[in-house]
Design a protein that fits this description.
This protein has 162 residues and is of the alpha+beta class. The protein starts with a helix and ends with a strand. The chain contains three helices and 13 strands, in the order H-H-H-E-E-E-E-E-E-E-E-E-E-E-E-E. It has two domains: 35 residues; 109 residues, Sandwich (Immunoglobulin-like), CATH 2.60.40.740.
């Protein structure tokens, strides 16, 4: 049932005020359930981009070197949104632009979208790779908008050793 159908039902109700107000309460409950229980509905409601952030990794890596990872961020994400990136175990962040907002775990890093008036379009960070790494490694990342919406960072996820 769409919101316009609910409105038509409410407007076509009897003149009885009790029934009318009961219908309005029901419509509000249905609308709240529709918008706040489905992340895709919330995305549409907030007009979020399809790809809020895209990660770009180098083609290959070698143990002992430093690589730079870029995350292109859509500038229309709401202020306070968190961008959370997890690098392979044992790989250490050596530099980041902009600076980190948090580091909740050893290989997890968090940046925040600045307040209104400031725009974040790109995150670049460098990680140091320990000697002896020779397998495929995975990067994962999320975008947390408020406490109820989590989106996945798209783009490159895997990097292979030379």
């Amino acid at each position: 049932m769409t919101p316009s159908n609910i409105l038509i039902i409410i407007l076509s109700m009897d003149e009885n005020k009790i029934e009318f107000y009961r219908g309005i309460r029901l419509a509000v409950v249905i609308l709240c359930l529709f918008f706040f229980t489905h992340s895709t509905a919330i995305q549409g409601f907030l007009k979020l981009p399809d790809n809020p952030a895209i990660r770009k990794l180098p083609e290959k890596y070698r143990g002992g070197e430093i690589i730079v990872v870029t995350i292109n961020v859509n500038p229309f994400l709401p202020a306070g949104t968190k961008i959370i990136e997890k690098v392979p175990d044992g790989w250490d962040l050596v530099a980041a632009n902009p600076p980190l907002a948090e580091q909740p775990f050893r290989n997890m890093y968090v940046w925040k979208i600045p307040r209104k008036g400031e725009v974040l379009t790109s995150i670049k960070y460098a990680v140091s790779i320990p000697q002896g790494n020779i397998s495929r490694k995975e990067f994962t990342g999320y975008i947390d908008i408020g406490k109820s919406i989590r989106l996945t960072i798209s783009g490159d996820r895997h990097i292979w050793s030379e």
